[in-house]
Q: What sequence folds into this?
């Protein structure tokens, strides 16, 4: 089958022809380059109107035979651009008299990595202009395991470069400048597998305004943002028990990010695949490749139903083109358990947890995070138990060695034994600690231990004190995301969890949770 792909969600007017028998991909791209500032939606749409016909013509003339389907980016992206591309794709499908395939651009960023790597069931880190998220596959959908709570990765960097007067796109310029810079500290914000870039961006602009050399700010920016992305990727691998990682999106072209991810993957015995640069930034090749898989599975769309969707999320797409899911890996049963950030050994009913240095992080950042988290974990584990929530009793703390010794609790992780009563008790526990102004920070199903109906909260390393409803709601969001990422039928569990939280906690937190879920991520 030969598929014509068309991409034009933001800056790349691109067309490609993919032949699934030879696996050849021909791509022709004409980028939009704003003269000043960022991407202007109307200018970008004007660029699409001018450039799409000629890139399509070039792609078609490179095709070695007739086209069997036309695939196009249906969203997410800039509305005015999407409309131009949608119109062109419909007209082409009709004039060539072939079927039409509407592709989710974010799923395409992911699938190109899975396709090129040959991996079975990778976790995917998508880092592009308007997005940043970690996806895993479960029961016929790509699940968002974690994502930015505000700006996309590329847009965050581009906002900083606009502030310092550099032209769009800023990513490559920051990469170059960072090579000559010294690391500076910037806010590091990870909540479970979600993360935020807005605090870093304000701090980076402020540092520049205060006279810190732009090279140093660039270095700090990269080290901080990419360490966050690497950390959440590692958490996603750990939570899902998978050992394959692919990346996608324009920011994944950054060599420092690739280096950090490779180091993390090597150290945990996982495989990383970075697609060729031509498949990373926006390109129609990834649209054509996914289009071919979808067309082969019968996922075509009638012209009258092929409207665009500027907020199209990857988890809205029913994934019908993949073969069955490979079996979930068994849990780690050895004595030494390598979690996402610590090495845990169990002996004589005691657990020793050592936060090992992460060599992918800058040493200063690594030192700061291990120290802060060890101190917070000791303090909050203790305070939560005093508030009446089962947590392990603390036996020893060595901050210099980033090591804690606590009592062994529970028989297994909640991940491997989810059930209604247990998630209800987690709802009660979170309501209790929130009542004391304690935020857990990472309440995933792996950070809850179960013993019969009883549940224990462990691993308060990302926790802190706050009475802000947003912070409390994020705890609920993180827990629900992890239920959705690991349970076969998550929705009844989510309801039971929320019901128990509602009975014991504050309604305002649940209202805020709805606000978090409804928030547009495409800034
Ligand atoms: C919705 C869609 O239109 C959007 N696409 C998009 O943003 O284009 P993409 O090509 O995936 O990514 C562009 C971003 O990638 C950044 N970028 C490019 N090269 C970079 C580098 N070497 N280091 C860091 N960032 C880089 C640019 O600064 C820009 O922000 C998306 O996927 O979110
Ligand atoms: Fe993109």
A:
């Amino acid at each position: 089958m030969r598929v014509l792909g068309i991409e034009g969600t933001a800056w790349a007017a691109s067309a490609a022809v993919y032949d699934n028998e030879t696996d050849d991909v021909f791509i022709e791209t004409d980028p939009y380059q704003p003269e000043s500032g960022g991407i202007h939606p109307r200018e970008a749409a004007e660029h699409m109107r001018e450039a799409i016909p000629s890139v399509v013509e070039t792609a078609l003339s490179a095709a070695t035979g007739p086209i069997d389907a036309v695939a196009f980016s249906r969203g997410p992206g800039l509305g005015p651009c999407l409309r131009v591309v949608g119109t062109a794709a419909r007209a082409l499908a009709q004039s060539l008299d072939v079927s039409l395939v509407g592709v989710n651009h974010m799923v395409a960023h992911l699938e190109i990595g899975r396709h090129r790597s040959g991996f079975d069931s990778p976790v995917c880190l998508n880092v592009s202009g308007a997005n940043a998220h970690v996806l895993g596959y479960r029961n016929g959908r790509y699940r968002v395991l974690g994502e930015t709570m505000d700006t996309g990765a590329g847009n965050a960097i581009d906002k900083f470069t606009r502030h310092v007067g550099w032209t769009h796109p800023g990513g490559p310029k920051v990469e170059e400048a960072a090579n000559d810079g010294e690391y500076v500290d910037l806010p590091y914000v990870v909540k479970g597998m979600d993360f935020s870039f807005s605090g870093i961006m304000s701090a980076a602009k402020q540092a520049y305004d205060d006279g810190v050399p732009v090279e140093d700010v660039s270095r700090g920016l990269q080290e901080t943002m990419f360490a966050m992305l690497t950390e959440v990727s590692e958490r996603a691998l750990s939570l899902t028990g998978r050992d394959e990682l692919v990346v996608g999106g324009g920011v994944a072209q950054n060599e420092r990010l690739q280096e950090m991810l490779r180091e993390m993957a090597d150290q945990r015995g996982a495989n990383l695949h970075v697609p060729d640069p031509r498949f990373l930034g926006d390109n129609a090749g990834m649209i054509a490749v996914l289009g071919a898989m979808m067309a082969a599975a019968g996922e075509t769309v009638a012209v009258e139903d092929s409207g665009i969707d500027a907020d199209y999320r990857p988890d809205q797409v029913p994934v019908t083109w993949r073969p069955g899911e490979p079996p979930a890996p068994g849990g780690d049963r050895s004595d030494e358990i390598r979690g996402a950030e610590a090495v845990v050994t169990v002996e004589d009913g005691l657990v020793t947890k050592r936060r090992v240095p992460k060599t992918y992080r800058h040493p200063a950042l690594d030192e700061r995070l291990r120290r802060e988290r060890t101190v917070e974990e000791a303090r909050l584990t203790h305070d939560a138990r005093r508030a009446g929530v089962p947590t392990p009793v603390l036996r020893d703390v060595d901050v210099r060695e980033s090591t804690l010794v606590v009592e062994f609790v529970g028989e297994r992780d909640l991940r491997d034994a989810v059930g209604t009563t247990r998630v209800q008790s987690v709802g009660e526990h979170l309501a209790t600690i929130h009542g004391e102004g304690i935020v857990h920070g990472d309440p995933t199903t792996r950070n809850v231990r179960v013993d019969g109906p009883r549940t224990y909260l462990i691993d308060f390393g990302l926790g802190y004190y706050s009475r802000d409803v947003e912070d409390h709601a994020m705890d609920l969001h993180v827990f629900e995301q992890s239920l959705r990422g690991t349970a076969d039928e998550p929705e009844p569990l989510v309801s039971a969890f929320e019901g128990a939280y509602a009975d014991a906690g504050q309604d305002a937190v649940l209202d805020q949770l709805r606000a978090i879920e409804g928030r547009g991520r495409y800034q």
Observations:
- Confidence is low (pLDDT under 50) at residues 331-336.
